[in-house]
Write a structure and sequence with these properties.
Radius of gyration: 67 Å
CATH architecture of the domain at 155-278: Alpha-Beta Complex
Number of strands: 8
Structural class: alpha+beta
Shape: rod-shaped
Distance between the termini: 186 Å
Oligomer: single chain
Strand order of the largest sheet: 3-8-4-5-6-7
Strand content: 5-15%
Helix content: 40-55%
CATH superfamily of the domain at 155-278: endopeptidase domain like (from Nostoc punctiforme)
């Protein structure tokens, strides 16, 4: 055996002549067809076969979507917080309004209660004052009754020497002697003590207060040792006197004493006054 008998040949086997001719014919036919097609129609542009690589955006898009979601969530939280704050503010405003209304109501109720208490206290004070004046007048009446035996000597027909306005006041007061005493009386035929004094001063266009308490402070306080006709005498303390009269001179006064005696003219010794005021 040859030393090259086992080495395969590297040469291609010969093709069959008939097959080769057939393939050449087919190829020629194809080329003829392409040539005919090219002659029959316009030249066609060659198709673009270049490949364009698109950038990868998956990672960036994911980050943007996450950021957008986070921003949306934050806006939602902010809106929820704002809604809670507005609701709390509304509730607080309603509570404050209600508290204010309640405070006003309580203040008005307190004011009414204080006014009522003040009115009741004033009514009690006035009642006590009336009771005091009534007791004082009762005492004065009893004193008048006990000295009735000497009342004729105490009553005189003293003719006042007063002049001017004082003379008019004295003359009016003396003209009412003998009239009846009636609580609250202001004339013309019945009087209480302050009603008589007020009417006497009105004859000279002097408008005195209506009650004894006020009349006892209507002028300048004077000593009982320095009296002048027309001075107002009072019994009790200044500002809370329970009885008044008019000094007519000669140590005598005219006053609406009580329901038993009516309007009388008496000596100061009959019932010494506490003090006096001078108006003229």
């Amino acid at each position: 055996m040859s030393h090259t008998a086992l080495i395969p040949s590297h040469r291609k086997p010969r093709r069959n002549a008939s097959k080769t001719a057939l393939r050449a014919g087919v190829a020629g036919g194809v080329l003829s067809t392409i040539a005919v097609a090219g002659a029959a129609g316009p030249a066609q542009a060659e198709p673009v076969t270049q490949t364009i690589e698109m950038p990868t955006i998956t990672a960036g898009l994911s980050t943007a979507v996450a950021a957008s979601a986070e921003a949306t969530q934050q806006v939602a939280l902010d809106l929820e917080t704002q809604a809670h704050e507005e609701a709390a503010a509304t509730t607080a405003a309603k509570a404050a309004k209600k508290a204010k209304a309640e405070a006003v109501r309580k203040a008005e109720a307190k004011k009414k209660a204080e006014a009522k208490a003040k009115a009741e206290a004033q009514a009690k004070e006035e009642a006590a004052e009336r009771a005091s004046r009534s007791a004082a007048r009762t005492t004065l009446s009893a004193s008048t009754g006990s000295s009735s035996g000497s009342s004729s000597s105490a009553t005189t027909s003293y003719a006042s020497t007063a002049t001017g306005s004082a003379a008019s006041i004295v003359a009016f007061a003396q003209a009412q002697v003998g009239d009846a005493y009636v609580p609250g009386g202001t004339g013309p035929n019945s009087w209480d003590c302050s009603g008589l004094v007020q009417a006497a001063y009105r004859t000279v266009s002097v408008d005195l207060p209506r009650v004894s308490q006020s009349q006892s402070t209507a002028g300048t306080q004077v000593s009982l040792s320095n009296l002048q006709p027309g001075d107002i005498l009072y019994w009790g303390s200044a500002g809370s006197a329970y009885h008044v009269g008019i000094y007519v001179g000669g140590g005598q006064f005219v006053g609406a004493q009580n329901s038993s005696t009516g309007v009388v003219q008496r000596s100061l010794d009959y019932d010494m006054p506490t003090g006096a005021v001078r108006v003229l």
